[in-house]
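In the previous lecture we treated proteins in isolation. Real proteins rarely work alone, and many bind small molecules. This record shows how such a complex is specified: first the sequence, then the SMILES for fe (ii) ion.
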Amino acid sequence: MKLGAAELQTLRTGALLHDIGKVTVPDQILNKPGQLTHDEMEIVKRHPLVGFEILKSMRTFEAVRPIVRWHHERPNGTGYPDGVGGDDLPLMPRIVAVADCFDALSSDRPYRPCLPLDECRTILEAGAERGDLDGRIVDTLMHIVGQGTADLQLATVLN
Ligand SMILES: [Fe+2]
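The predicted 3D structure, ligand included, written as tokens:
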């Protein structure tokens, strides 16, 4: 995505901390094997704002806060907690949103096993079609993963 070293560092920190607000979500909700009820979902949906509030008093995390607050927002404006989209939704949370979705799809979850790469790609590309995800980021991720060098490139970014 042609980010500089400082932006990559912000992205890395934001990716590590993006779900920090989940510390307030009870384990029985986080680890529930079945569908969440409406009320349980409303509790889960608080975590971006809770995370934002946790980091609010720490100046070190100023650049990271938009990632934490907006990693469940969507380019088409249908995400949460603020419903920001279009030009108001910055690149960093868009990247973490795509990475978060890919991580969820390609990992075992309490409610289903991990999905094969082709299926992950189909779901992410459908998400981009709807405007739920940034298509340019999905394409970039799939390009990297398709090269089979994702681990190598991630290792380079993280070290
Ligand atoms: Fe999250």
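Summary for your notes: The pocket of fe (ii) ion is lined by residues 18-19, 47, 71-72 (CB under 6 Å). The mean pLDDT is 92.
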